[in-house]
Amino acid sequence: MSALAPTRLSHLDRLEAESIQIMREVVAETESPVMLYSVGKDSAVMLHLAKKAFYPAPPPFPLLHVDTTWKFRAMYELRDRAASDAGMELIVHQNPEAKEKGINPFDHGALHTDMWKTQGLKQALDKYGFDAAFGGARRDEEKSRAKERIFSFRSASHAWDPKNQRPELWHLYNARKAKGESIRVFPLSNWTELDIWQYIMAEGIEIVPLYFAAPRPTVERDGLILMVDDDRFRFHEGEQVVDRSIRFRTLGCYPLTGAVESEAATLSQVVQEMLLTTTSERQGRAIDHDQAASMEKKKQEGYF
Amino acid sequence: MTAHASSYRVDAMIARDIDAYLDMHRNKSLLRFITCGSVDDGKSTLIGRLLYDSKMIFEDQLASLEADSKRVGTQGQDIDFALLVDGLAAEREQGITIDVAYRFFATEKRKFIVADTPGHEQYTRNMVTGASTADLAVILIDARKGVLTQTKRHSYLAHLIGIRHVVLAVNKMDLIGYDQATFDSIVKDYRAFAESIGIEDFTAIPISGLAGDNIAARSENTGWYAGPTLIDHLETVELDVTLDQAKPFRMAVQWVNRPHLDFRGFSGMIASGSVRPDDPIRIVPSGRTSTVSRIVSFDGDLDHAVAGQSVTLVLADEVDCSRGDVIAAADAPPQSADQFQAKIVWMDAEAMLPGRAHWLKIGTRTISATVQQPKYVVDVNTMAELSAKTLDLNDIGICEVYTDRPIAYEPYADNRDLGGFILIDKVTNATVAAGMIDFALRRSQNVHWQAIDVTRDAHATQKNQRPRLLWFTGLSGSGKSTIANLVEKKLHALGKHSFLLDGDNIRHGLNRDLGFTDADRVENIRRVGEVAKLMTDAGLIVLTAFISPFRAERAMVRDMLPDGEFIEIFVNTPLEVAERRDVKGLYKKAREGRLKNFTGIDSPYEAPRNAEITVDTVTMSPEDAANLIVARILEQ
Questions:
Q1: Which residues are recorded as binding ATP (chain B) (predicted)?
Q2: CB count in 10 Å sphere of residue B387
Q3: Buried b (16+ CB within 10 A) or exposed e, B159-179
Q4: Residue B479 known to bind ligand
């Protein structure tokens, strides 16, 4: 072996290696893994890491998109292309009950998220019998996530018990579980938002163009700037479509996702704005505003 | 608000030249550290301060922090940084942190991952967990209180888990008027203790998490202090991952990448050393050798890879190598052994049962292992060695560990990845313990696993049969021996090569040193399993007839053999039928109390849940049962 000066691994090298190690461990130790793919930037990074982890083989699991039918059009477009580029099967699940009842973000508020996302996810995992699901959540996103393990166990009814988590030591993950139990695995646990952006830049990962500023049709409502992405948008009285230069820091259902006014049209400009900005990433998501511990409650109920 | 301006807040470069800034930050290194101390030492405040000063806290979070501080904070009208790092709702209500939480911040030079663990006595398990991935420990001391019992506990645990860099952060200096004499006296006390437990070096820094002294910027209040600030030190301390590169090459195989017949790669994370194409390697424990032909990556083949990287290696030869094996430098491979002395940290509410089989996961290998009664446990408050029969939650014990087959290992002090393991309960699947290998026991360490050219497959092929272990289990008097005898006669007549291991006969020879205590019963079955395994290696069909009442022990033997070779045969006879037969008069003795621990009477029989074959001796004659068994094993 060589007597050369040591190779210095950057923080991105180390994060990448850790995420890859986690993914390989899941593939080696579970029967039927799946990767939850939400088409956001974190999903894009996670998918890229999966391609690296199993190269030259394609990632040995399918992608699952728990669809609400209300995502931005640009997201659907990238979703289908990204899956086929990776050589992976794409499973799209839309909660048939929500579909039948016409659940939508305009009329149903929190019920919309619960039915399409929370219930939809449980349905899909049960339907296909997946026993492990990769998710792109990061510990820096929110306080209760900071204490969640990388391998997070769910009971047969998909409940999370924050008091009964398995200790994770070194690089050792205990993936054993009883029949009916499943694991949510978070390979990006130790990444921060800045790490994600830096990695997207360094690796040239394609992300939805909505992350970059462009003139888009919008309305302002309750302090949020909403984009009018299709003709299903319901206007309140007196609301008018205004073209604004906007971008999104996080992507979800378009009627629920607030944009920021911005001129940042390139990756480095986006990162620049992020570093100079003074509000956290989740602020644009309507679901977090109720109370500090809302995410923890949602998780105990089975939200990812 | 008492926040001080600090030297590592967002610099002007972001606004001026973002590309130059990003370029600079692309090559940051990563340091993981742990903070140890109690709520009272201002630990959460210190972490909150680090996050705040490095701009990891946004305006909306700050607004909610200010509101929370006034509502439930402990700092009057000032910001209570501790609230930033409290997580789960129940904990917030109790006002304490009760688990391991991970926090992130970055400076110009490094990204940091902080494991935040509680200081309460009952949470040894959490600190050990948080420390297992840390390069450095910050031990917090309240300057008004000096070195306390908990300081010693935290230091001992940090040292136990192999942390090489210890920072003694003497906090709340503002409350003692930044008095140098007090600081010096605390450092002196700590040095004496640290040396006594083997901590060779530490860095002591006088700080105030609340006021910001010597955190990011040098404090004017401590003119007498010439050392680094906390951030300076965290930014420059040497990383374990860099030091690991100088050690011999080792990589545990995680996954065999085989997309098509022309490609076979071995994927894993390099635990130590470095590797290049053409390097000679040895696979441990098999001992086979080859050379590295390629280091394959998504971005093209690499000419070099080092500790800490996840890679895929292609070898020059078609050698047998699978998940759990270690690929190592050919001239400096790790040893393999199956008996160790290890430090065990018990993490389960249910106490350890010495001799019970657990899953042991080390590197990428999961095997069956038993932990023996501890030689002693360590009192983490006094470091005293106490005798103990078992390990309770949060106990640290020195124990012998026996694995059911040899594994590649290194002492934990040399390599965390090949010396650290977890124990998993086979029934609940809980992670019940963490362990650190001290050394292999002499009786096994110098015995290298011999690579044998006539393989078990060759033995079996020559005999034109698939090796099997037919494990008959059932109550005394159920007819196990009778049926096993008949089965062997039939196999023999068919030209099969077999051997019947009878319980009583074995107790006359190999196991004559064993009695009938629980521990001896477990050892009896283990030896029978080992002998049976050797015989199946030789290609034989082995039959055994033992009551073997416990599922855990039958599972232990099942795990010794390749998948599909262990055939559990449940000779199902209801207790009243067996007792009525009472061929040997044993039930009568047991009922009269003259025979203790008799299975079915005063000792339980755990019937198999998923036996490969079940024969019901009430409805079936021994002859029919034997015919059924022979037909079933030959059809497969």
A1: 474-481
A2: 9
A3: bbbbbbbbbbbbbbbbebebe
A4: yes
CATH label, B245-329, candidates 3.40.50.1100, 2.60.40.10, 2.40.30.10, 1.10.260.40: 2.40.30.10
Give A33 to chain B, closest Cα distance, Å.
15
Question: What are the sequence ranges of the domains in chain B?
Answer: 23-238, 245-329, 335-446, 456-635
Amino acid at position A161, single letter: D
Give the full edge-to-edge strand order of the sheet including A242-247: A224-227, A214-221, A242-247, A260-261
* Residues 128-157 (B) with a CB less than 8 A from some CB of A: 128-129, 132-133
B191 and A CB contact within 8 Å: no
- The top-level CATH class assigned to B23-238 is alpha beta
What's the fold here for domain B456-635? Rossmann fold (3.40.50)
Q: Which pLDDT score, from 0 to 100, does residue B92 have?
A: 47
Residue B209 to residue B195: CA distance in whole angstroms: 27
Note whether A140 contacts B422, CB cutoff 8 Å: no
Give the number of beta-carbon pairs within 8 Å between A and B: 211
Alpha helices in B463-608 (DSSP H): 480-493, 503-508, 518-537, 551-560, 575-581, 586-591
**pLDDT score of B458:** 82
Amino acid in position A87: G
What does the pLDDT read at residue B420? 96
Nearest Cβ partner of B88 from A147, A198, A278? A147
CATH architecture of the domain with residue range B335-446: Beta Barrel (2.40)
B37 labelled ligand-binding = yes
CA distance A263 to chain B (A): 14
Predicted local confidence at residue B89, as pLDDT = 45
Highest mean pLDDT among A141-155, A192-206, B2-16: A192-206
Query: 3-state DSSP call for residue B411?
Result: coil
Domains B245-329 and B456-635 share a fold: no
Note whether A226 and A172 are within 8 A (CB): no
Which of the residues in chain B have pLDDT under 70?
1-11, 39, 55-99, 118-122, 443-453, 518, 636
To the nearest whole Å, the CA of B132 is away from the closest chain A CA by 5
Q: Output the pLDDT for position B79.
A: 63
Q: Give dist(CA A200, CA A185) in Å, integer.
A: 21
Q: Are residues A6 and B56, on separate chains, in Cβ contact within 8 Å?
A: no
The two beta strands, B365-371 and B498-502, are: unpaired
Decide which of A270 and B96 is more confident: A270
pLDDT at position B242: 83
> Is B23 a known ligand-binding residue?
no
Residues of A with Cβ-Cβ distance to B298 under 8 angstroms = 51-52, 55
Q: Report the pLDDT value the prediction gives residue B11, as an integer from 0 to 100.
A: 61
Distance from CA of A150 to the nearest CA of B (A): 11
Answer with the residue of higher pLDDT: A200 or A162. A200
* A21 touching chain B per CB within 8 A: yes
B97-114 per-position pLDDT tens digit = 456 788 888 888 899 999
Give yes or no for B405 touching A (CB within 8 A). no
Chain A partners of B89 at a C-beta cutoff of 8 Å?
Answer: 144, 292-293, 296-297
pLDDT beyond 60 at A286: no
